[in-house]
Amino acid sequence: xxxxxxxxxxxxxxxxxxxxxxxxxxxxxxxxxxxxxxxxxxxxxxxxxxxxxxxxxxxxxxxxxxxxxxxxxxxxxxxxxxxxxxxxxxxxxxxxxxxxxxxxxxxxxxxxxxxxxxxxxxxxxxxxxxxxxxxxxxxxxxxxxxxxxxxxxxxxxxxxxxxxxxxxxxx
Length: 171
What we know:
The chain is about 40% helix and about 20% strand. By secondary structure, the protein is of the alpha/beta class. The chain has a single domain (about 30-170), classed as Glutaredoxin, CATH 3.40.30.10. Helix 2 (about 65-85) packs parallel to helix 5.
């Protein structure tokens, strides 16, 4: 009787594990949605085309967000090495509204960021990506699939992002 019960439980667990694996494998990856934004010079950019040249880090931030600036300034120190090693592009999406968006170029130029900086004052891209608060960082593969997402910032988070980037680039 114990053997039959054990066999039934084992069969049930095997079936459940297989069902979960199948569900994971058949779930399509979330893609970057197509939203029209502008860069700091006013040039229109379609967000669905951000990965045309390889993997992309998309970081939502604002000039009034201290953790956002801390994260992007920390990554700035490492960014040139990341680009050389993986070919990644970092896109910093400023969610500053009409009142504060004029501060974005002042801050970015003052910090000499080499990032692509896009403006999302109406939060269209922020909503489309499901961002509730900033900073929120995504890693996107060359096909536009979101492969990593992280909300908030603590020192050392950039190392986790880098490890995910290395996995994505096969290094």
